[in-house]
């Protein structure tokens, strides 16, 4: 391997611009050497603004480039499996965006290919490195909240639909709406903080209320189609039974008549956490609730400062894992585990029954 790990970016859209490229470039041994997008103008602009000299418009060409060690797949969900599998077979390491794929069958093939080819397959579960999430995870593992009785994750967007007709809102290209787009984050954050307990059953409900009526437009999305197809969910509610008896509920909306809110509560029989992530500018710090000699107490833990920001930890650890100096934050197997739950949620919603896992 050359002194620098050379990364090619596949998909020159929003997350590549705001996440992947700056994140990889922060690593002392990571460099971004090529960009690929079918939208050549977008690829050229992103390359030019980042000093990247090579631009491709066909993903088959970038994965065949011998001067590239690894790629990041920042494409519409429908392309994650095909491009990741082809890249792995071409000998590249892959950091794939979330959700891992559109179906469990695709995800299984991605993970099996990574293992067979001996390449790193990571997934961008970008919320895991947050200091609050890491703190809660460590304390749950130490037994500080005791046996989990109830956990809740909410990501409520008042108006966050990424256009009406872009790939995000077309099921054939996205696989699903709010549940796959942001439900994946909430589900992963809560279960990860709980130490990934076994889930024994899931009951899910999905609805499309605002999208079909062209209401609730948000700011995200590179291709701002306004009058196209919307055939995905914009609200999802999940109830997960844990094998040891606890209950986890997840609620996410792309758009709803309610206040923006992100909240995680982890409640055990010895203590509990209340965390309002700061996405919407809510500055309430993480709180820990317990008792002291029978009296309720509430403490605000001191959290470590994460140099370069929590979001960049994913990219740093991806390069570290390729170079054999660390491990990824979230692996393909982790992405597959969450995908199984997402798929079961859609099955539960369509069959209107609880699904045993
Ligand atoms: N981890 C996170 O927090 C996070 C945040 C946002 C998006 N994402 C994920 O990142 C992925 C991309 O999302 P985005 O918001 O950047 O979307 P986007 O629409 O802004 O970018 C996607 C890009 O892919 C390009 N593209 C489409 N088909 C292509 C093809 N066949 N070959 C090459 N390029 C092609 C499009 O032209 C576009 O530029 C999605 O899977 C999304 O779920 C993750």
Summarize the entry for a quick read.
The chain has 357 residues and is α/β, with parallel strands linked by helices.
| Class by SSE composition | alpha/beta
Give the helix proportion (percent range).
25-40%
Q: How large is the count of helical segments? A: 10
The total domain count is 2
What does this structure look like?
By secondary structure, this protein is of the alpha/beta class. It has 2 domains: 5-126 and 311-331, NAD(P)-binding Rossmann-like Domain (Rossmann fold), CATH 3.40.50; 131-305, Dihydrodipicolinate Reductase, domain 2 (2-Layer Sandwich). The chain is 32% helix and 24% strand. The protein contains 10 helices and 15 strands. It has a 9-stranded mixed beta sheet with strand order 14-13-12-11-7-10-9-8-15. Helix 1 (14-26) packs across helix 9 (313-322), helix 4 runs parallel beside helix 5 (104-117) and helix 6 (131-141) crosses helix 8. Nicotinamide-adenine-dinucleotide (NAD) is lined by residues 11-16, 36-39, 42, 59, 74-77, 79, 97-98, 124, 126, 181, 221-223.
